Every structure is written in structure tokens, then in C-alpha cells.
Amino acid sequence: MTREETAGRLIGVAKRFIPPPGRWIAARFLDVTTDSLERIMGRGGPLTPPLRIRLHVGPFLDPELYRLSAERNVEALRELCGLRRDSRILDIGCGCGRVASALARYISSTGSYDGFDVAKEAVEWCQRHISARFPNFRFRRIPVFSQRYSPQGSRGASEIAFPYDDNGFDLVFAASVFTHIPPDGLANYIAETRRVLRPGGVSLATFCLLTDSSLPSVEAGLSEPRLRQKYGDFWVRDLDDPASFIAYPERFVRDTYQNCGLTVVDPIRFGSWAAGSLEASEVLEPFGFSQDIVIAMKVQ
Ligand SMILES: C[S@@+](CC[C@H](N)C(=O)[O-])C[C@H]1O[C@@H](n2cnc3c(N)ncnc32)[C@H](O)[C@@H]1O
Which of 108, 144, 206, 287 has the fewest beta carbons closer than 10 A? Predict the structure, then answer.
């Protein structure tokens, strides 16, 4: 078990044993303690959320890793998607604003950033800490059900419309989000991506794609995350909650994009997740993703 997994488990266990009225106080105590320690060590900063909230989006025990991974993701948006300082960006499943915090240093006041997520606490943190400093950075929570991230959500991922106008964005991205969306929801999210992109606009999404080369590793239990069960044509971490982590066949993903009217821009850039790259080493990847990168364009 990695250090990040251990920290995440400890927080999970504490949550189970601390009765609800005490949880808020315990969470604040933990946040103040870890924030202070990080400040003393000269790490973190005003756009870096407390450790407890960071662990919600990934193995980011180290605030420096959190910051650096986001910087690399922004390089991907610049190099692969033509991100400019005045771009209008939508971040699907923005989490606690990891990529937003790096974009805030790049996007000018003529550009804009919108992010949405199902996780209430993460979105509220972004509103308080990022929007307060960068008014052209906006965050929303949408009430979609996710057993892992939003058990109180009332709607399915296949049922919602993104709360934005048609053709309003130059760039739409989803970093490590479509690995948490069930198949019917995925088709809807890609169709909605197309709707909100302007003609000529570009999307970037990461997946764990099942291919001739990744499948043997998955079947041998070598991939990171470990996908233990087959779920139709897909592989999942947990059959009781398929959306806790799901890998899709490359063909299925390509077909879904095509059916939704987005053109996949080859090549797909395959990451190292299938070979068992620890997510914590994401930052070592050229663009900061260990997952596979799919770029697509709304041609018209
Ligand atoms: C691994 S985290 C990645 C967060 C962020 N994109 C990043 O790269 O830092 C996955 C995120 O997807 C969000 N999520 C899960 N299901 C979602 C859904 N149906 N719609 C939007 N976001 C969702 C979770 O709340 C979580 O913040």
C-alpha cells in the first residue's frame, strides 16, 4: 500500500468511528494541522487545498507533486489542444481545482475557466479560495449520484445537461473523470461536451483504455489501479460500484466519440497505467497523466 493509500484509509477509518457531530471539528482540526505543517516546511500555498481534500482527487500527499502535476497538465492543454491565454475553458469533474490552480497563473482576464463537479466540499473550497482571487474562474456543483464521490446525488450521469450554453467553450477537458462514469453516462458526457464546444473547439479527456497491449496487464492484475473484475466489455475495480473505477475498450470509446459527433484526433497518447505505474508518479509522465489521453475536435 502506498503512503497516499495509507493516509486515505486512515481518514476513512476515522470518519467511520467519529460520530457525525464530531466530524466537522475533526476535519477542521486535521486541516489546520496539516496546513500548518506544510507551511512550516515551505510547501503548499493559497491555491493548494488541505491534504484531506487533496486526497479526494488523487495520491497527492505531497503538495509539490499536486502543483507540478497540474503544471504538466496545462502544458498538455497548450501543446496538444492549442490553449491560449484568452481561451474559454470547461473542466469536467474539476475536483478541488488542481488544474484550475495552474490555469489561474496562465489564463488572462479576457479568458475564462468554468469547472463543475459532484463533490460538494471540493467545489466549495474552490469557490472560496480560487474564485475569490480570480473572478473569471467559476465553480459549480451538480447533484449527480456517485457512490464514491457524491452518494447524496439525486440524478444519473446519463440524465443531466451541463449547465452551460451551446458553443460557449474553446476547450473542454476531463482529467481522470471518465474513469468514474458508467457507460450510459459517458455517452451523455461526450454528447454534452460536443454541445458546449464551439465549432473548431477541442476536447481532452483521459481514460484507461483496454487495447491489445493493455488488456494482458489488466488481466494479470498488474495495472494501477488494479482492476479486479470484468463488467460486460469493461473492467472495473469493484463490481458493487462499477463507477468507482472503470476502464473502457479503445474501440468503444472511439465509437462513442464518433456517435456523438466529435472527431478523435490521432494519435491517442497511451500512458503507463497498464504497466503498473503508480499514480503518484504521474508527474514523471511528460504531460502529468498516467492515463491515456484522447483529443477530439468538434469539426462543425
Ligand atoms: C480522480 S478525481 C479528478 C479530479 C480532477 N479532474 C483532477 O484531475 O484533479 C475524479 C473527480 O471526478 C468527479 N466526478 C465523479 N463522478 C462525476 C460526474 N458524474 N460528474 C462530474 N464529476 C464527477 C469526482 O468528484 C472527482 O472530483
Answer: 108
